[in-house]
Amino acid sequence: MPDGTVTSADGTTIAYTAWGAGDPIVMIDGSTAYRAANPLNQETAELLADDFLVVNYDRRGRGESGDTPPYVVEREFEDLEAILEQVGQGRPATVFGWSSGGNLALNAAQDGVPIARLALFEPNAAIDDTRPPLPDDYVERLDAAVAAGRPGDAVALFMTAAAMMPEEMVAGMREQDFWAGLEAVAPTIAYDARQVGDTLSGKPLRPELWMRIAVPVLVMHGIDTWPALAAGSRAIAAHLPTSTLAPVPGAEHSTTADVLAAALRSFIKEN
C-alpha cells in the first residue's frame, strides 16, 4: 500500500495512496472528505486490488495535499490528470466520485481529462422542488466566512444549505470533537460549490452541460438514501446519453465496500 505524491500543473503537491496493479481506478471524495477521514475508500480498494491499480488521493487543501491560491475549478482537473499520468501511467482509467466528487469527475471529463469510464455515487443535482436550491450567494457566503476567520460558520452553512441538516442538529455538532477537523478543510467547501455550479439551482440541467462526455457512465444511488439525493442521481443519469442508473443497497448517502467494489468491478468488465 504505497503512499506517494504527484505534482500538479501549478506546482501543488497532491498526496495519494495506491493499491494493486493493472488499469487504474481513481477515487474522488466529496465535500470535506479525504483519505484519513474516509476509510471506505481504502476498504473498497483492498477488495479491487487483485485486478486493478486503485488510487485514492487527497484533493487540494485537504489531508496531506497542498494548495495554491487562487482556486479555479480547472486546478482540480489538473490534479486528477497528474494522478492519471504519474501514477496511472496513462492507462485506461475509471474515475469514481462520491457526491460532489462525482460532479468534479464529470467536469474533468467534459474538459478533456483522459478518462475511460466514469462511476458516480449520488452526484449533485436538483432540477425541481424535491429539495431547496442552494442560495444564490452560497459561494460568496462560504468565502466570506473563511476570510473573516469563521470557518465553523462555513461548515454550518454547508451542513444546512447543501446537506439539508436541521440547524439544531448542526448546533449540536459544533460541540463535538470532530468539528475541528471539518473547520480545517472549510476553505475547500467553496471549491466543491464551484464544481457543483448551477446543478443545485432547482432548474433543469443546461442542455450543453457535460455534452462532450461520450464514455460509459455509471450513476449509483443508495436505495435507502434521501429522496432528493436519489432524484438528483436520476436527473444526471437521464441527462447523460451514455449513462446507466443503478440503485444499490446503501444507507443514506453511502454504501458498503463490498457492494461498491462489486458494482465497480462489474461496470468495468462490461465496458
TrEMBL record:
<dbReference type="GO" id="GO:0016787">
    <property type="term" value="F:hydrolase activity"/>
</dbReference>
<dbReference type="InterPro" id="IPR050471">
    <property type="entry name" value="AB_hydrolase"/>
</dbReference>
<dbReference type="InterPro" id="IPR000073">
    <property type="entry name" value="AB_hydrolase_1"/>
</dbReference>
<dbReference type="Pfam" id="PF12697">
    <property type="entry name" value="Abhydrolase_6"/>
</dbReference>
<protein>
    <submittedName>
        <fullName>Alpha-beta hydrolase superfamily lysophospholipase</fullName>
    </submittedName>
</protein>
<keyword id="KW-0378">Hydrolase</keyword>
<dbReference type="InterPro" id="IPR029058">
    <property type="entry name" value="AB_hydrolase_fold"/>
</dbReference>
<feature type="domain" description="AB hydrolase-1">
    <location>
        <begin position="31"/>
        <end position="260"/>
    </location>
</feature>
